[in-house]
Amino acid sequence: MLKINEIFETIQGEGVFTGVPSIFVRLQGCPVGCPWCDTQHTWEVEDENNIPVRDMMAKSTDTAMWSAMSVSDIFSTLEDCGYTAKHVVITGGEPCMYDLNELTTALNQDGYSTQIETSGTFPIQCSMATWVTVSPKINMPGGLEILASAMQRANEIKHPIAMQKHIDELEQLLAEKPAQPDTQIALQPISQKPRATELAIKTCIDRNWRLSLQTHKYLGIE
Ligand SMILES: C[S@@+](CC[C@H](N)C(=O)[O-])C[C@H]1O[C@@H](n2cnc3c(N)ncnc32)[C@H](O)[C@@H]1O
Ligand SMILES: Nc1nc2[nH]cc(C(=O)O)c2c(=O)[nH]1
Ligand code: SF4
Ligand SMILES: [Mg+2]
């Protein structure tokens, strides 16, 4: 069973798929603890926060409540909601705490494209067709071997930055744990801070990397 914090339909706000109508499946639980994380309500998995699916789907604010769902429960919910998006983004929390092979394979077979947003701190278990966005959490728990294999699997590396140190860390990581030659590299300013944004723009131009903005936050949408 997967522990689901929320399922909703919106526009993908970040990275290469920015602008694509997407169904978001947000999993509960993350032990990484990035100080600037914008989804801290997904960190803890408390048994007393297990609620029925209809209550989870009715949530209107960010809470730590979650529902245990099978892949077939998730399909029933997508059908009940009448979503039109054909791209599914699996995020969290840290989605790779879970084996996502069954979910991503079933979604692909049903005609959905799939994407995972992950920190590279757990082994990535998903269909070959899944687009993997790695937002590498350098010096965080997980270990170098897992991070190295995440870098290899990544279709996109999307690195949140606020200062030069974060860019230096990414460059060192890319030198030591190389990505594939066609992997897209993007910098994402942390929390829309003007100085972070300015630094990201300048560095992206210097290195010919992409800029990823959290466009949903500028738009005030989910
Ligand atoms: C909330 S995380 C969940 C998925 C996974 N745990 C990860 O870190 O990739 C989704 C994306 O949001 C980014 N992110 C989280 N908080 C952010 C913030 N305050 N500013 C910019 N990006 C942020 C993460 O780095 C990641 O790319
Ligand atoms: N619109 C929108 N786009 C997103 N891209 C990545 C998100 C995430 O929280 O993983 C996210 C999100 O929460 N909302
Ligand atoms: S790994 Fe992702 S969900 Fe976990 S704390 Fe960092 S940004 Fe948040
Ligand atoms: Mg988000």
TrEMBL record:
Associated pathway: Purine metabolism; 7-cyano-7-deazaguanine biosynthesis
Catalytic reaction(s) noted: 6-carboxy-5,6,7,8-tetrahydropterin + H(+) = 7-carboxy-7-carbaguanine + NH4(+)
Domain of life: Bacteria
Cofactors named for this entry: [4Fe-4S] cluster; S-adenosyl-L-methionine; Mg(2+)
Keyword Transmembrane recorded: no
Domain spans labelled Radical SAM core: 17-222
EC code: 4.3.99.3
Cofactor: binding comment: Binds 1 [4Fe-4S] cluster. The cluster is coordinated with 3 cysteines and an exchangeable S-adenosyl-L-methionine.
Keywords: 4Fe-4S, Iron, Iron-sulfur, Lyase, Magnesium, Metal-binding, Queuosine biosynthesis, S-adenosyl-L-methionine
UniProt xrefs under InterPro entries: 7-CO-7-deazaguanine_synth-like, Aldolase_TIM, rSAM, rSAM_QueE_proteobac, rSAM_sf
Pfam families: Fer4_12 (PF13353)
Residues annotated for Mg(2+) binding in this entry: 39
Role summary: Catalyzes the complex heterocyclic radical-mediated conversion of 6-carboxy-5,6,7,8-tetrahydropterin (CPH4) to 7-carboxy-7-deazaguanine (CDG), a step common to the biosynthetic pathways of all 7-deazapurine-containing compounds.
NCBIfam families referenced in this protein's UniProt entry, alphabetically: rSAM_QueE_Ecoli (TIGR04322)
Quaternary state and interactors: Homodimer.
Classification via HAMAP family: QueE
Protein name per the record: 7-carboxy-7-deazaguanine synthase
Species assigned in the record: Alteromonas arenosi
Gene name, Swiss-Prot/TrEMBL: queE
